[in-house]
């Protein structure tokens, strides 16, 4: 009996790879540039690498094979695309709205929130949440963002005189405070609480477990992954992640019960009538009370936006500060723009001021080109499509490597240089609209991108007006590592000096 079972397993191990290799989908895939790997396992063991090495391995594919490459492992088919026309074909249509792996690996934490859901659920949630990012909401929250920027600048003042400062922890705490105080309507007590500290730590550990799973095809099956030590580690971190957001929801519900939280009357620009607009968590709780969303639905969106709203912005700010520290002339131009807007006043910016920060906006966009907070985007191709002249079979995972698209020399001459003028009106007009996608693009683009830009402008305008930033970490020394967001192996250090020309 054991002999027959063993023989059956051996036959299956041979037949399954043979089926996927010689099926129509397998034949189409073999025509695409890239390594075919082994007959049985494809590229399975080529990608079983450390987070730093797998990031570099994926980047080398573009250099070696060009604008479309393939990877495969057992029954998993993946293509990597770098051509703006192909990216537009995938991202601009609802035909390819669906997300599966690797977003499925985020579901133990985020469940099926806006980032990971599909189909009608995604459509309903997108429609539900869009009003929380309306212009009037952003305008109302600018005061809070400016207050948090002042708190951040006080923290940075304490770093003056030090040889170097790791900017990421400072930015992370600040962006978390902003999310709590604006979208969640919760006090900034979470800046220093033990829950917040555990949340930061758990988020980083969770990211490493996701990468570990992504690079090991045998863990794509939930039942097998749940037998692993990595799953036990991940499960422990999820408790801390959910404990933090559960407390936020609980606190807001208590606040709503203890005092009647009214809705601001604002002008609806669409029809000129007065109507209320709610911040994100209040909007979710209102929908829960109306039976439009359940308690789990509230939490999965709070989990999603607490992660996306603070971590990606913190990384973007940290890379930007490191970048301008290494570009003194750029930093001087930003300062001159601030002087032209504010003069000698130390007041906080208004919405009109933010609009006037044209050069700073170009600098932020150039930093996001070089250091996109989300370095890759994935879509599940539910039907056959032609990309770069190759027929891509249905049920293929399509990866868009934003970092390398943004560093194509034919799209951005001298791509490693920090040149904000690339995003002047004339240059931007000539560029393919899908050659620059730090916030993704199409129907599933980042819902909070305008909020993020507003926050970054507030922080950076205040920072440059009060401090000069000097380089410690050099861009050429950066070593990237695979994670949910763009991370580096070593801290991003700068040196802060007070401005003497105030």
TrEMBL record:
Pfam families, sorted: p450
GO molecular function list: heme binding; iron ion binding; monooxygenase activity; oxidoreductase activity, acting on paired donors, with incorporation or reduction of molecular oxygen
Presence of keyword Oxidoreductase: yes
Highest taxon listed in the record's lineage: Eukaryota
PROSITE patterns per record: CYTOCHROME_P450
Residues annotated as binding heme: 446
Cofactor(s), by name: heme
Keyword Phosphoprotein tagged: no
Keywords, comma-separated and alphabetical: Heme, Iron, Metal-binding, Monooxygenase, Oxidoreductase
Job of this protein: May be involved in the metabolism of insect hormones and in the breakdown of synthetic insecticides.
Family that this chain belongs to: Belongs to the cytochrome P450 family.
Protein's UniProt name: Cytochrome P450 monooxygenase CYP4CG17
């Amino acid at each position: 009996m054991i002999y027959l079972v063993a023989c059956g397993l051996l036959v299956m191990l041979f037949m399954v790879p043979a089926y996927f290799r010689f099926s129509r989908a397998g034949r189409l895939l073999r025509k695409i540039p890239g390594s075919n790997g082994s007959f049985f396992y494809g590229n399975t063991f080529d990608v079983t690498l450390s987070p730093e090495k797998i990031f570099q391995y994926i980047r080398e594919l573009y250099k070696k094979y060009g604008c479309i490459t393939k990877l495969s492992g057992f029954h998993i088919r993946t293509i990597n695309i770098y051509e703006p026309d192909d990216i537009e074909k995938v991202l601009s249509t609802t035909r390819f709205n669906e997300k599966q792996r690797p977003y499925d690996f985020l579901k133990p934490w985020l469940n099926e929130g806006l980032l990971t859901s599909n189909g009608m659920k995604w459509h309903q949630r997108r429609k539900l949440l869009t009003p929380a990012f309306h212009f009037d909401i952003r305008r109302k929250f600018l005061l809070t963002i400016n207050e948090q920027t002042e708190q951040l600048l006080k923290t940075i003042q304490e770093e003056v005189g030090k040889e170097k400062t790791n900017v990421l922890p400072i930015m992370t705490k600040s962006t978390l405070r902003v999310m709590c105080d604006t979208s969640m309507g919760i006090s900034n007590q979470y800046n220093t609480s033990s829950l917040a500290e555990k949340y930061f730590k758990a988020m980083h550990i969770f990211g490493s477990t996701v990468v570990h799973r992504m690079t090991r095809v045998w863990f794509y099956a939930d039942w097998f992954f749940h037998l692993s030590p990595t799953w036990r580690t991940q499960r422990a971190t999820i408790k801390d992640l959910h404990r933090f957001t559960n407390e936020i929801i609980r606190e807001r519900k208590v606040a709503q019960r203890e005092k009647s939280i009214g809705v601001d009357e604002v002008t609806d620009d669409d029809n000129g009538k007065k109507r209320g607009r709610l911040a994100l968590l209040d909007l979710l709780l209102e929908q829960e009370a109306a039976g439009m969303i359940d308690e789990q639905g509230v939490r999965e969106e709070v989990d999603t936006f607490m992660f996306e709203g603070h971590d990606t912005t913190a990384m973007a700010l940290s890379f930007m500060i490191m970048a301008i520290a290494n570009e003194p002339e750029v930093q001087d131009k930003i300062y001159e723009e601030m002087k032209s807007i504010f003069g000698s006043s130390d007041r906080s910016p208004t919405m009109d001021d933010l609009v006037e920060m044209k050069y700073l906006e170009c600098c932020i966009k150039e930093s996001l080109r070089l250091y996109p907070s989300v370095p890759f985007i994935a879509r599940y191709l539910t039907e056959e499509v032609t990309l770069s002249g190759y027929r891509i079979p249905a049920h293929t995972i399509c990866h868009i490597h934003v970092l390398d698209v943004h560093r194509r020399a034919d799209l951005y001459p001298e791509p490693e240089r920090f040149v904000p003028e690339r995003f002047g009106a004339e240059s931007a007009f000539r560029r393919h609209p899908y050659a620059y996608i730090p916030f993704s693009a199409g129907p599933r683009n980042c819902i909070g991108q305008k909020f993020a830009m507003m926050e970054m402008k507030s922080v950076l305008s205040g920072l440059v007006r009060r401090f000069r930033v000097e380089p410690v970490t050099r861009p050429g020394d950066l070593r990237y590592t695979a994670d949910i967001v763009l991370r580096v192996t070593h801290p991003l250090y700068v040196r802060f000096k007070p401005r003497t020309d105030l």
